[in-house]
Amino acid sequence: MKLKSVLQKKSLGILIHPSSLPGGSYCGTFGEGAKDWIRKLSKHKINFWQFLPLTPTDTTGSPYSSPSSFALNPWFLDINELIEKKYILISNLEKLTSYQQNNDYFDFDIADNLSNKLGRYLLQSWPSQSKERKNNFYVWNKNNTWVEDYSIFMAIREEFNKLPWWQWPIDFKNKNNKFLKSWIEEKNQEILKIKLIQWHLDKQWKTIKDFAKSRGITLIGDLPFYVSRDSADVWSNKSLFSISQNGDLIFQSGVPPDYFSSNGQLWGTPTYYWSKHKRTNFKWWKKRFKRQFELVDLLRLDHFRALAGYWRVDGNAKNAINGKWINSPGRELLTALKKDLNFDFLPIIAEDLGVITKDVDLLRRNYELPGMKILQFAFDGNEKNPYLPKNIIGENWVVYTGTHDNATSTSWWNTLDKYTQVNIKDNFNFSAEASWNLIEIGMRTKAKLFISPIQDILSLDDSSRLNTPGTIHNNWKWKLNKSLNEIEFHLQKYSELGIKYDRVMN
Fold first, then answer.
1. Exactly one of 58, 233, 302, 456 is catalytic; which is it?
2. From the centroid of its chain, how far is CA 383?
3. How many whole angstroms separate alpha carbon 127 and alpha carbon 137?
């Protein structure tokens, strides 16, 4: 991949997860709804589409705590394409589309149930598929070695009522391959079903990716720095993580106490045994990034600062107070990735939010990675605030009104105290529509890329918020309750403002 730079010119993007798009059978999918979205972006010359990790979610619906760093979320499997290409029988259509819809939110249990039904129908039709299709499937399995451990992991998890792997019987917990061999043979159909779902998801998304490329749309994915303790990644590669064979955390990740939290944050994910990763020349990381760049063009690396140094806390700690900073081999890893993946510039956006030390900033700049600026963080009255537009120096930034973790800009504005509101109005000419004021401020910066969540473009309040950090209920469920044609006026307005600030070619 040869680029002059990752971000070549001033541009615009929109943040929306595929699950929130209209046009799917239940939530948004890798089908015509996603293509329609790309058509709208292309029509209005909005060249970047950003979304959250495409991986399966945990039980709370979070894609940032996934059972796999490599798999795709079964909720995204598009029914119509499977029927059209005769992978499942059309007589099953009514059984697959008879779900009562809530216009604003979707239910994870219903989405899971639908995915399981689809898997069963794929399995039923598999014996009648052509030899060519079966050969394509077997070749894909051979080229995607992660799918073996993932499908076995998920089948075992189902066997034991979704208990975490450290609560499985000992031979399953310890991945005793000799013992598992006969169990795998017994469960071969269940494992095949999981593999078929992943194969189809992979094919459908890569069709979307090719379609986006043909329309000039760049796809921005998202990669959590750490992986879930209860994941196929950890279960099958325990020596790479600070975890015992029994599943006990030796060290866990988090961040130290700060202005927002007197106890810091404990994340419950195992830290990495970096010495082992270095000895293997970062083999696991290379596979992880290679997989991501099969799916996206640019990748937002969450918690980038941990590549310079990470906050390590004892595995049995109850808070993050008594941790310590440990150096990370970020430079070696990024150099290895750049060489192995044959990049002139690493197509990574560094999520460098929060208190960032000089070593983190130096690492980002040495690899010419764009950093992030969030405008909602800018207006605390501190003239040196790094998120204030006047303090955003240079072009190698991605500026956002807010992210998936923020309040919508409408609700952000409504919860500000009157003094702060007056101060912002006086200094930034704010009018009635706060979200559009913030969008225009972002577009005026020198940053190469400006991105707004769709909620801010539509001036929605927090009833449409995607996630509230620190909570586990009512997150990740939001769906756009209008057709794309109904919101086209807003997309056009966004594009026209982009023309004004040289972010869209007229």
1. 302
2. 33
3. 13
Q: What are phi and psi of 29, to 5 degrees?
A: -135, 180
Which of 351, 352, 440, 456 is flagged as catalytic? 351
Q: Is 302 a catalytic residue?
A: yes
Contact 270, 242 (CB under 8 A): yes
Integer angstrom CA distances of residue 336 from 121, 354, 364: 43, 27, 15
H-type alpha helices, 223-371: 232-236, 274-279, 283-295, 330-340, 358-366
> Closest Cα partner for 430 from 372, 378, 373, 506?
378
As beta bridge partners, residue 312 has 253, 324
340 is catalytic: no
Least confident of 94-108, 285-299, 418-432, 479-493: 94-108
For the chain, what is the radius of gyration of the CA atoms? 23
In whole angstroms, what is the distance from residue 39 CA to residue 31 CA?
Answer: 13
Write out pLDDT tens, residues 73-91: 999 999 999 999 999 987 7
Pairing state of beta strands 265-270 and 48-50? Answer: unpaired
What tokens does 439 get? 């969008």
159/152 Cα distance (integer angstroms): 10
Q: pLDDT at residue 472 above 90?
A: no
Closest CA to 453 of 440, 463, 439: 439
Q: Is the separation of the CB atoms in 122 and 193 below 8 Å?
A: yes
List the one residue out of 359, 350, 260 whose CA is nearest residue 308: 359
Reported as a single tens digit per residue, the pLDDT across 100-111 is: 567 899 999 999
Catalytic pick among 36, 107, 149, 405: 405
Is residue 241 classed as helix, strand or coil in its secondary structure?
strand
As a whole number of angstroms, the distance between CA 306 and CA 323 comes to 14
Is it the case that residue 151 has pLDDT exceeding 50? yes
- Non-local (6+) Cβ contacts of 319 within 8 A are 263, 264, 266
Task: Give the pair of three-digit tokens for residue 286.
Answer: 């290379």
Contact 238, 245 (CB under 8 A): yes
- What DSSP character marks residue 327? E
32 catalytic per annotation: no
Residues 413-435, buried b or exposed e (16+ Cβ, 10 A)? Answer: beeeeeeeeeebeeebebeeebb
- Retrieve residue 348's tokens: 């990574």
Question: Measuring CA to CA, how many Å separate 168 from each of 149, 157, 175, 202, 320?
Answer: 16, 8, 10, 29, 28
* Of 303, 224, 226, 228, the residue nearest 65 (C-alpha): 228
Give residue for tokens 């894909």. 140
Q: Are 113 and 92 in contact (CB under 8 A)?
A: no
Annotate 242-275 with three-state secondary structure.
Answer: CECCCCCECEEEEECCCCCCCCCEEEEEECECHH
Phi, psi of 39 (to 5 degrees): -60, -40
Q: Give the SS3 label for residue 216.
A: coil
